[in-house]
Amino acid sequence: MSFLSKHKTAFFIIITIISLILMMFSRTDYYKPTIIANSLGYIVTPIQSFFTSIGDFAYDKIYLYNNVALIEEENFKLKEENEELKAQQKRLELIEEENIKLGELLELNQKYPKLEKVGANVKIIANDISNWYDTFIIDKGLRHGMEKNMVVMANEGLVGIIIEAYDNYSKVTPLIDDDANAITAVCVRTGTLGFIRGDASLMLDGLCKMEHIALDGEITEGDEIITSSLGNIYPAGITIGYVQEVALSSDNLTKYAIIKPAVDFEYLELVAIVKGVSIDEIES
Amino acid sequence: MYRIVSLFIILILNIVLQSTLFEYIEILNIKPNTSILIIISYAMLRGDIEGSILGFFSGLMQDILFGRVIGLNAFLGFALGFICGKPFKDFYTENYFIPIFMAFIGTFSYGFIFYLINFLFRGKLEVVNYLSAIVIPETVYTTVLMFFVYRFMYMVNEKLLKKEASKRKLF
Predict the structure, then answer these.
(1) How many CB atoms lie within 10 A of CB A198?
(2) What is the 3-state secondary structure (H, E, C) of chain B?
(3) In B, which residues are within 8 Å of A41 by CB distance?
């Protein structure tokens, strides 16, 4: 200690240089599951898992007591919907079979490939501690078959992507995060294309932005937006959300839309993991 | 040794609580940033060198668990601890006013510098938007909690001083 306090300036400069070097060589693009990150995971994730279970338990109980009537009503509605969907499902299965047969005849590639599930009901154990980003940690990692660039979904729609996988935990960036990669998206009704981008000030309200929509592209409030087959990682046809507002961008050359994601990010507890697609796979 | 172990436990517990249960005490969708408070109070109690070392490791832990780049929060925490430790010889540690004032200044500048590095350089120019939505609410909420955090860190420091005093050899 006394040695350090004699050379304070040198100490300050050396630590600054060390952090700069760390920053240069630790970008996510070249991440490797290091020993430090893995072992910190082994210490921290069990405790996080414990505290999250306490929080979830309390929240669920309070929610239950406050909304019994509401839940009953919802249950009734869901049962009705279930009946309807079951009937529809049979019809769709027949149509799909027919589609496959016809596709084989025409030697077409599947435009909407079947989703390959890697994990279901994976628990979210921690959220980012800063208010700027919304990265979260799930309790499955390399040991459970998780890998970088796998797609994360909840039953309502797209959540995001795994950016880093470690031994027993993985980091997920949701699509509303400011740092998330752009997603190629398409409007179901009209086929208008755009890019989904997160924005820190919209993220707090659980919203995101769809940018670079052509001026003559048709898009209005309430339109459903899904992932497009043009993108790389994300399988086509996953629901992203619904348009809430359309406006001209500041340069007057394109339009942008505010999207309300189908998933409620505020109290997300369980997610499903799906294998991503890559362009080489589609081509071969 | 006692000091290192107990500080490590405090850091781990803090990051766990901040990432799990703090989700339920959000106001305006903003959570308080208690890791900044721990760095500031420890730096004010123990001086710039120890404060900056604690800040570095606190930030490093945050970077490893949640960050995209390792070293950014570590550096910011280091600088925060170094600067807030400067006046440590010049004021009474029983006084609450100066730590709370420092927490206000520290949280605001931490948030603002974070915005400069991560958002302004990427072309996100809506300064007022980011300040009013994130930085200022976070500053206010965090400053209010400084009272409790500083009390806690003061108590921990006193206990550690007592433990160390009994072990110190006079000659």
Answers:
(1) 23
(2) CHHHHHHHHHHHHHHHHHHCHHHHHCECCECCCHHHHHHHHHHHHHCHHHHHHHHHHHHHHHHHHHCCCCCHHHHHHHHHHHHHCHHHHCCCCCCCHHHHHHHHHHHHHHHHHHHHHHCHHHCCCCHHHHHHHHHHHHHHHHHHHHHHHHHHHHHHHHHHHHHHHHHCCCC
(3) 65
Residues of chain B positioned with their CB less than 8 A from the CB of A21: 71
- Optimal mutation site among B16, B33, B34, interface A, most CBs of chain A within 10 A: B16
The model's confidence at residue B171, banded by pLDDT at 50, 70 and 90, is: low
Measure the CA angle with vertex A80, ends A74 and A84; round to 5°.
Answer: 135
Question: A145's torsion region: left (phi>0), alpha (psi -120 to 50) or beta?
Answer: left
What pLDDT is recorded for position B113? Answer: 92
Mean pLDDT, range B74-80, rounded to an integer: 91
Instruction: Please indicate whether, in this complex, the C-beta atoms of B16 and A48 are within 8 angstroms of each other.
Output: yes
Phi, psi of B19 (to 5 degrees): -90, -10
ipTM: 0.80
B72-84 vs B34-46: helix axis angle to the nearest 10?
40
Cα separation, A251 vs A211, whole angstroms:
12
Share above pLDDT 90 across residues of chain A, in percent, rounded to a whole number: 4
Mark yes or no for CB contact A19/B75 under 8 Å.
Answer: yes
Q: With an 8 Å Cβ cutoff, are A201 and B130 in contact? A: yes
Q: Residue A136 in 3-state DSSP? A: strand
> Is A11 at the interface with chain B, CB within 8 A?
yes
In the predicted model, what is the mean pLDDT of residues B143-168?
86
Q: How far is CA B99 from the centre of its chain?
A: 11
CA distances from A165 to A146, A159, A170 (A): 7, 17, 4
The mean pLDDT value for A47-72 works out to 83
pLDDT for res A284: 44
Which residue of B lies nearest to A129 if distances are taken between CA atoms?
Answer: B19
CA distance B110 to chain A (A): 11
Cβ neighbours around A85 below 10 Å, total = 11
Q: Cβ–Cβ of B65/A28 closer than 8 Å?
A: no
pLDDT at A163: 86
Q: What is the pLDDT of residue A279?
A: 56
What residues of A are in contact with residue B118 (Cβ under 8 Å)? Answer: 132
Q: Which residue has the higher pLDDT, A263 or A30?
A: A263
B50: nearest CA in chain A?
A: A1
Tokens of residue B133, six digits: 């939505």
